[in-house]
């Protein structure tokens, strides 16, 4: 890997020239004439050979069969025999023969089950109307407006691959496939973090949460964009366009070779090239994808991954070695075999009976230690001894029933316990692994079993028969017990397990289960007017952390409303809404179980120190707007959130905004546009109509969003009595005064990034003022707010919000 840092002196004189060359290397926007339009109404069917091709035919969009009757909606290189996939929509949810993707009449691109009419995937265009779709020669599939502005691009939502001309912005990520034959999400993630650091992570598989980093560009505070330019170079650049780190260079020209960079299933990011010429002699390359040997990270995956939680580059009880092709090979140590020979990364198991701890001294003679040089399992230690001999180390492990392997190196002895993790073979490690194996580890059916081993073999077989008998008896008892439960207790429990509709897939918890999950409601995450939230761990997977919301008595008493809200919230499915996992509706107990978003809420970052930069705040603004637009207009049941504020906006590890706290949400029936209810919400964010005893609509959320938007713009609370200038005490007052007087710059005076983006700041302030109009009819819908934020709809000059402040002060 070639790494080039901007601080290197020889780059300075050429920085201007370099920037000019980088700009020249970028693609010019495709003109409308170069598109092959896909117009609304057109569709493709899984199993047909039809596809939507780019003008040159080099890329195609359509279905590829990856398993028997299993199809991916994908983009692939179309002029090479391999038809290599570079993007897919449904990698974790293969569709069957006959399913379709269609550009609907309303402009939405939807993948659906044609027999059941069930939607499987769709491209999120935030409600904007799409005029056409196109497969471009860059490998980018786009959905565009009439003016050729792209509303959605596959380049912005990559799976595991990057292509020339593609950029990788902060918050973007690649997720490796599970294996070479299975494209579903696997164990590794490549991301450009919001702090500017480019990082490779292991994932807490099968969850998609990150576990441990194993490579980093070490560019915190500097990295802004990863660029794969048309010259075939991949590099990380700063915000001002200067190069920080070169990931891959010296590649053959893109005019003669296809290029792709892929995070492969083994956790390595590799840059591959393929000759466009079908004559291998003319191209000088074989007809296959060839990795650029100096352009992959990390250079040795076997030694790079070393984590406390997790198995390492290969599975538990296995070890990783680097082959001649620089790809990792997973192997089992002597005495062990693969759990699944078809999936070697699942790890290995012992193929012998472990040492009996109650008779360890008598069983010492039944085991021996097999030696393997330069092999280690770091971080699996049970004990460590120094200044000892190898013979002492051997005896110590043989007499210890917990010792599975001993590592001896330079007078040090490390005892290792099961399961062994982070296994690796590396000549640079030195030392040796002493692997404990039972001497009678032979198949009793073999003719060459030594006669003096028969007694041990008979004892083992007899023990297994006894264990099998006991296991069968236990299974019979367990079945009888379950039958009793089903006949008796099940009828009673049914009262608590069916408050939701059949189409809502939520888990119903008992109160005792949630008591156990939260350690008797020990760790409080937060509390509000209607509920207290506790941290919990689900018993079926100790690494699944959840937020358990215990609703107070006033909410608990409204059982009918609780059931309705669980039904509605359970149907929501949007990347900017927190996911409801389950509920408890038992006796007087009403609890909701949500996924736990570990980065906390927006208030901690917006009002704390250091504060969020302008670009992250913009991204959060778009996320909240899209989430509310979904609640108001795209749900089967329209939902009014009623309490939009920074404390209810959670942030994930990539600082994506996730709306939470539906505990006081209000639902509207299909024929309703407004409802009457008691005041809900938080001081400072509550719309004026709450205080006038008027019916409320979705516009109350628009009002709260307006206040939140002002806070995001100015990075301060909506009411701050400590400020020196009392005219700035109420943020909404001050913001309108600044807008009216043409001094919006005062709102972001200490924010350099925002000052450089003043046109957008002014637009956002105008949108916020429209949102906080006292008259709800003057406020835009969240759909229009989203379109104004994105620039699709022009923002007209807002009127004076007039008396809206009186309602704030009276609350």
From TrEMBL:
ATP binds at residue 549. The keyword Transmembrane helix applies. Residues 519-805 form the Protein kinase domain. It comes from Populus tomentosa (Chinese white poplar). This is Receptor-like serine/threonine-protein kinase. SMART domains: B_lectin (SM00108), S_TKc (SM00220). Residues 37-156 form the Bulb-type lectin domain. PANTHER family: G-TYPE LECTIN S-RECEPTOR-LIKE SERINE/THREONINE-PROTEIN KINASE SD2-5, G-TYPE LECTIN S-RECEPTOR-LIKE SERINE_THREONINE-PROTEIN KINASE LECRK1. InterPro entries: Bulb-type_lectin_dom, G-type_lectin_kinases/EP1-like, Prot_kinase_dom, Protein_kinase_ATP_BS, Ser/Thr_kinase_AS, SRK-like_kinase. Its main location: membrane. Belongs to the protein kinase superfamily. Ser/Thr protein kinase family. GO terms for cellular component: membrane. CDD domains: B_lectin. The keyword NADP does not apply. Residues 1-32 form the signal peptide. It is found in: Membrane. It is a single-pass type I membrane protein. Keywords: ATP-binding, Disulfide bond, EGF-like domain, Glycoprotein, Kinase, Lectin, Membrane, Nucleotide-binding, Receptor, Serine/threonine-protein kinase, Signal, Transferase, Transmembrane, Transmembrane helix.
């Amino acid at each position: 890997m070639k790494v080039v840092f901007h601080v290197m002196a020889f780059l300075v004189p050429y920085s201007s020239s370099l920037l000019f060359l980088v700009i020249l290397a970028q693609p010019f926007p495709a003109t409308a004439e170069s598109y092959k339009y896909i117009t609304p109404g057109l569709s493709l069917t899984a199993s047909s050979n039809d596809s939507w091709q780019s003008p040159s035919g080099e890329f195609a969009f359509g279905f590829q069969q990856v398993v028997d009757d299993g199809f991916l909606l994908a983009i692939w290189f179309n002029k090479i025999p391999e038809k290599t996939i570079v993007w897919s929509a449904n990698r974790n949810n293969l569709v069957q023969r006959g399913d379709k993707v269609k550009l609907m009449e309303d402009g939405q691109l939807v993948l659906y089950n044609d027999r059941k009419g069930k939607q499987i995937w769709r491209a999120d265009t935030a409600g904007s109307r799409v005029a056409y779709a196109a497969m471009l020669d860059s490998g980018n599939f786009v959905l565009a407006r009439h003016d050729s502005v792209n509303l959605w691009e596959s380049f912005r939502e990559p799976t595991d691959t990057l292509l020339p001309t593609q950029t990788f912005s902060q918050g973007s990520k690649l997720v490796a496939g599970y294996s070479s034959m299975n494209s579903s999400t696997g164990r590794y993630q490549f991301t450009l973090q919001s702090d500017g650091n480019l990082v490779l992570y292991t994932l807490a598989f099968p969850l998609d949460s990150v576990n441990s980093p194993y490579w980093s560009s070490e560019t915190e505070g500097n990295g802004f964009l990863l660029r794969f330019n048309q010259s075939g170079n991949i590099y990380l650049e700063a915000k001002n366009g200067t190069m920080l780190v070169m990931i891959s260079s010296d590649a053959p020209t893109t005019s003669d070779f296809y290029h792709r960079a892929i995070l492969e299933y083994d956790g390595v990011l590799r840059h591959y090239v393929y000759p466009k010429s079908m004559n291998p002699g003319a191209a000088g390359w074989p007809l296959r994808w060839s990795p650029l040997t100096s352009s992959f990270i990390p250079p040795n995956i076997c030694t790079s991954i070393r984590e406390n939680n997790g198995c390492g580059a290969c599975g538990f009880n296995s070890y990783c070695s680097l082959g001649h092709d620089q790809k990792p090979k997973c192997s089992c140590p002597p005495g062990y075999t693969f759990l699944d020979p078809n999936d070697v990364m699942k790890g290995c198991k012992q193929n012998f009976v472990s040492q009996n701890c109650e008779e360890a001294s008598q069983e010492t003679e039944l085991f021996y230690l097999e030696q393997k040089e330069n092999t280690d399992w770091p971080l699996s230690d049970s004990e460590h001894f120094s200044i000892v001999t190898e013979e002492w180390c051997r005896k110590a492990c043989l007499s210890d029933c917990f010792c599975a392997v001993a590592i001896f190196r330079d007078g040090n002895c490390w005892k290792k316990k099961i399961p062994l993790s982070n296994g690796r073979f590396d000549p640079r490690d030195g030392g040796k692994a002493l692997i404990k194996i039972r001497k009678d580890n032979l198949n009793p059916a073999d003719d060459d079993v030594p006669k003096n081993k028969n007694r041990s073999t008979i004892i083992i077989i007899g023990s297994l028969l006894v264990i099998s008998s006991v296991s069968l008896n236990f299974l019979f008892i367990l079945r009888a017990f379950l039958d009793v439960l089903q006949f008796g207790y099940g009828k009673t429990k049914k009262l608590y397990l069916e408050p939701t509709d059949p189409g809502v897939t939520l888990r119903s918890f008992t109160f005792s289960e949630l008591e156990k999950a939260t350690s008797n409601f020990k760790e409080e995450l937060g509390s509000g007017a209607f509920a207290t939230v506790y941290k919990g761990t689900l018993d079926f997977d100790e690494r699944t952390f959840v937020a358990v919301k215990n609703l107070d008595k006033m909410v608990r008493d409204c059982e009918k409303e609780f059931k309705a809200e669980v039904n509605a919230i359970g149907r929501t499915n949007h990347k900017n809404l927190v996911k409801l996992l389950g509920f408890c509706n038992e006796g007087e107990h009403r609890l909701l179980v949500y996924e736990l978003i570990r980065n906390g809420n927006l208030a901690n970052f917006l009002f704390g120190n250091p504060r969020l930069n302008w670009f992250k705040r913009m991204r959060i603004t778009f996320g909240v707007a899209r989430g509310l637009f979904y609640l108001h207009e795209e749900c089967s049941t329209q939902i009014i959130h009623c309490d939009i504020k920074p404390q209810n906006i959670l942030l994930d590890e990539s600082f994506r905004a996730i709306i939470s706290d539906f505990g006081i949400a209000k639902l509207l029936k299909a024929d309703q546009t407004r409802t009457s209810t008691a005041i809900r919400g938080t001081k400072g964010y509550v719309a004026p109509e709450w205080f006038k005893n008027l019916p409320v609509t979705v516009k109350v959320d628009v009002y709260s969003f307006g206040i939140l938007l002002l806070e995001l713009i100015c990075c301060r609370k909506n009411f701050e009595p400590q400020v020196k200038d009392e005219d700035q005490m109420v943020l909404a007052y001050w913001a309108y005064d600044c807008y009216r007087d043409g001094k919006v710059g005062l709102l972001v005076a200490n924010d350099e990034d925002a000052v450089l983006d003043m046109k957008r700041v002014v637009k956002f302030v105008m949108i916020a003022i429209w949102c906080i109009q006292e008259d709800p009819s003057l406020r835009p819908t969240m759909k229009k707010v989203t379109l104004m934020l994105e620039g699709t709809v022009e923002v007209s000059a807002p009127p004076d919000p007039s008396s809206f402040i009186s309602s704030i002060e009276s609350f």
